[in-house]
């Protein structure tokens, strides 16, 4: 067998981190060389000889982790949410000075969720109305979810490309928050409920019809095939890659 890829996990004690640690340990072509959590020194990752680091930490820490490890020549697979155009641009610029290093940032590694986003973007131009509902466990710190944000942005781009106008909405009186967040003109609603893991519905409406696209992650193992695919490929994708769809022939 060829040499195993040496992998570090950041946020290793968290819900996702623990699942990634197990998945890496069970993969015959990967070797877990470091598992670090909050307040750990990232030099552990470098000293362990990690080739790829997987980051499932918190939005306030992830960008700093990425810049520090890019400087050290470590490839990164990032699932942590909270990225925006500006923070992604800073990573892209940094990578221009580090040819050969790859960073893949994806808001969702579940194959079904990536497909749901792609289907929604494809369908968006054919519908007058669209709203997104994301439903998660109540321990999630960010809202809307990174997935819902990514979904709404892609829908907005598809609507703009098709020269669709604003989504119809006659609301002039509402309690704050009643119509959800406005992500580039697409309303996104966030539900937090004990018992849930990660779920998303995209509702598309026309006069007399509705298309509902729904994805459910019932268990965090659903994210692992996508994470492992990214770990295996990120080293041969220098620069910044955003979204697992780029690896699935869906972009
Ligand atoms: N892309 C995807 O497919 C998915 C993305 N996510 C995202 O992944 C992130 C993590 O989710 P989840 O596992 O549920 O969250 P958790 O809160 O369970 O885990 C986060 C872990 O990161 C640790 N941590 C905090 N700061 C640092 C740091 N600077 N360095 C290393 N570790 C740190 C935390 O430690 P402590 O608690 O001590 O602060 C905690 O153990 C979220 O942003 C979530 O939205 C989640 C699921 C799928
Ligand atoms: O916090 C979570 O749990 C999840 N976070 C990601 C997001 O914000 O989109 C991915 C998935 O929805 C689970």
Short descriptors:
251 residues, Rossmann fold, Dihydrodipicolinate Reductase, domain 2, six-stranded parallel beta sheet, 7 helices, 26% strand, binds NADPH dihydro-nicotinamide-adenine-dinucleotide phosphate, DHDPR_bac, EC 1.17.1.8
List the helices and strands and how they pair.
Elements: E1 5-10, H1 15-26, E2 30-36, H2 43-47, E3 52-55, H3 59-71, E4 75-78, H4 85-96, E5 102-105, H5 111-123, E6 129-136, H6 146-161, E7 181-183, E8 186-192, E9 198-206, E10 209-217, H7 224-233, E11 239-242
Parallel strand pairs: 1-2, 1-3, 3-4, 4-5, 5-11, 6-8
Antiparallel strand pairs: 6-9, 7-8, 9-10
Helix pairs in contact: 3-4, 5-6
Bound molecules: NADPH dihydro-nicotinamide-adenine-dinucleotide phosphate (NDP) and the ligand O=C(O)C1=N[C@H](C(=O)O)C[C@H](O)C1.
Query: CATH architecture of the largest domain, please?
Result: 3-Layer(aba) Sandwich
Beta strands, count = 11
Mean pLDDT rating: 97
Structural class: alpha/beta
What is the CA-based Rg, rounded? 19 Å
What is the total domain count?
A: 2
